[in-house]
Amino acid sequence: MADGINMQRVAQIVRSDPSRRYVVVSAPGKRFGGDIKITDLLYETAADVKKTGRTGEAFEKVKNRFAGIVHELKLDFDIDALLLETQRQIEEENSEDFAASRGEYLSGRIMAELLGVPFVDAREVIKFDAEGRLDKRSYDLLRAELKGKKSAVVAGFYGEDVNGRVKTFSRGGSDISGAIVARAAGADLYENWTDVSGFLACDPRIVPNPAPISALSYKELRELSYMGANVLHSESIFPVREADIPIRIKNTFRPEDTGTDILPTSKYRFSGNTVTGIAGKKNFTVIFLEKSLMNAEIGFTYRVLSVLLRYGISFEHMPSGIDTMSFVIDSEQLKNGVLENLIRDIDATVHSDHMHVFDDVALIAVVGHGMMKNVGTSARLFEAIARAGVNVRMIDQGSSEINIIVGVDNDSYETTLKAVYDEFFGD
Questions:
Q1: Which one-letter DSSP state was computed for residue 150?
Q2: pLDDT tens digit sequence for 311-337
């Protein structure tokens, strides 16, 4: 959606298959290296309005970009009037979410004109509850809005809160909007078109030419997306999962590529591969607690978690032993003295015998349904890491046996990822 050429490409993809009925659009992204995404310009615009009450240079760039797109498309569409009205609304609303949402709104208006189909404003049909979560009424509202419309364009990324103000999903939230529309429409398939040809078995920035993944399950997607495989927003599976709707990842720039199918349990068939994919992230901190007879102390874990709750801190994993417990936390949450205060309050609450902190830890997840079908998967994993000369700092394996997570030093992250990939995907 970056420019008029790409919008024409999207229109051709939609028109090439009559079963592609409802289109959810994102805001224009970068056209070239060094370019700025429309959403980022709109966040700058929101900051300008908050500071001065008026839009500034950033919104002028937004206006020029959208006007240029309409000119490229040669549309008979009064984009200048729409942009002036949008500018007035942004200043009047004085809301970061409202400003950020206008990229998808304007993109949707243009795409609807290009396709010659109705435009649906997400504000009217996607609602959030008082806690900021998706209101299930949204499905009924969307279903009613789409009824009788053979095709339509729906703006992604935003909806409306209980106070009648525009609220956005997190970045990449158009993926979630698409899943909501797919479920409301009772779709047979949710196609998510992006700039890559589906999921790869490892990060191509670290492992050259990793194997493509033709199909994976919802569970595998959640594990890989959470650990950094950012092809699809990890929350986008929830609306379609409940309705057993498959997702297909396709490349807008290479529509002939097969892509990746993401399948519900009822439709998933084991591929025969021991491991489906490998992903990871750096910069975690591990807080290690030790206390004798911890297992006999009722409420011990609850009291530790209550301290994390008071600080508003979430944890990624919680490996434990009979007298030990560890919390793996994203280091970003522990800056500016938070870690020191947290350690002090945990110790005062549970009176541990020992507490240690290990920082600069990277997590690597090995994911696949085949791991529970093949004897020796763990042995292969740890032999590969040992051959690479890497020390494992932490191990966590869920009872579902769909993943094994290992913690290593940040400095060993790339070496470990390559070693594990070579073990399971190498010749």
A1: S
A2: 999 998 888 889 999 999 999 999 999
Phi and psi torsions of 406, nearest 5°: -120, 145
Q: What is the pTM of this model?
A: 0.82
65-76 tens-digit pLDDT: 999 999 999 999
How far the first Cα of the chain sits from its last, in Å, is 39
Q: Name, in order, each residue with C-beta under 8 angstroms of 39's C-beta and a sequence gap of 6 or more.
A: 27, 100, 103, 171
The bridge status of strand 354-367 relative to strand 22-25 is unpaired
Residue matched to tokens 């084991």: 270
| Residue of 301, 407, 308 lying closest to 352 (CA atoms) | 301
Q: Hey, is 229 helix, strand or coil?
A: coil
**Exposure b/e, 199-229, CB count within 10 A at least 16 = b:** bbbbbeeebeebbebebbbbbbbbbbbbbeb
Q: What residues have CB less than 8 Å from 377, skipping those under 6 apart?
A: 274, 275, 366, 370, 371, 404
Q: How many C-beta neighbours within 10 Å does residue 412 have? A: 19
